[in-house]
Amino acid sequence: MRHALRRAGRGAGFALAWAGLMAGLTGCGGGVLDVGGKPGSPEEVIRVVPGDGARDVDPGVPLGVRLPSGRLERVAVRRIENETPARVPGSISEDGLRWSPRAGVRLDLAAKYSVDVVALDGHGRRSARHTTFTTEVPDHRFIGYFKPENRATVGTGMIVSFDFNQRIADRAAVQRAVRVTAEPPVEIVGRWFGDTRLDFRPKEYWAPGTEVTVDVRLRDVQAAPGAYGIQHRKTSFTVGRSQTSLVDAEAKTMTVRREGSAPVTIPITAGAAKFPTYNGKMVVSEMHDVTRMNGATVGFTDSGGKGEYDIKDVPHAMRLSKSGTFLHGNYWEDADIFGEVNLSHGCVGLRDVKGGSGETPAGWFFDRTLVGDVVEVVRSAERTIAPDNGLSGWNMEWNRWKEGAALR
């Protein structure tokens, strides 16, 4: 995580999103953190099977969550591959140490699942874990995992993004089989980033109220020798109200502009001189009401190799980049640093309280944010974020964006 931490002082500051209940473990500037723990790690370790990032998982593999001690508070396992998220039924054991799926439940082939867990230790302190895994895709088939979710309401900066499970040789054939349309109509162009990712966006932000349809007709489309598509589905999402936020790293403020409302300016702490926050337009891609951050997973360690910080209950966390930039609540720093000092490892921190509250700046902003909202950072010493780091394609000029299409 590219985020807040004062080495000799009061602790760390960092940042993190998925509009919902649960949690993830992430680091400011380093991508998703390993929340699985290591032998000898604290008793709050949350163990999830299959492991985080596992691919080609046998749908019949045992699925479960375990704690060595403490108590599971919430567990949600969902199929998230862009249809209405389908929850896997299951229950927590009477002793609170295990979650298991209902007897007879079998996972789907060629599907992506998320596991979100919140656990309590013996002192009532929360820890969180967020993992994902994908089940086996049949031989000679390929699949594209894409967002946003079906029937979601999103911000005006939402980008439709496909990640394919294998390299695409015939990009034109694949792009031709994916149609993204809008009502009212607007030109929408797909751009390739490498040979496994395809993003779609209009020239300007979506207009509020736009209905967007994603029609995927990849079944039997040949993407490479011997590799054929498996998907045939149509999903849609709605663009909600317009809200954009401008983070001024030098002034240490964030100004929130929403249609029909006066601008609201909030004091923030951004990346310290050694770890400046990326400049540029970033899109909220996930939201977590609580998550865990451990410096060891992103290279911030002390002389003994332990993480310089390990905060198990970071509140109001909103992901801004794939590499680990977040906007999040911060309760461990003194209230008077916000608007005065940049302390983070690259994230943007807002004042909060332990456990989170809707009455704090972080809670106020979280409650008014949608996945797809744009947060733009200016006047930072860091370079502009790359267009393929998260949903950051708005940083690319339109003509150059169109040059990356496989169809002309």
From TrEMBL:
Gene3D superfamilies: 2.60.40.3710, 2.60.40.3780, L,D-transpeptidase catalytic domain-like. It comes from the Bacteria. Keywords: Acyltransferase, Cell shape, Cell wall biogenesis/degradation, Peptidoglycan synthesis, Transferase. Residues 55-222 form the Bacterial Ig domain. InterPro entries: Big_10, LD-transpeptidase, LD_TPept_cat_dom, Transpep_catalytic_dom. Pfam families: Big_10 (PF17964), YkuD (PF03734). Pathway: Cell wall biogenesis; peptidoglycan biosynthesis. The keyword NADP does not apply. The keyword Cell wall biogenesis/degradation applies. Residues 245-377 form the L,D-TPase catalytic domain. This is Ig-like domain-containing protein. It comes from Streptomyces amakusaensis.
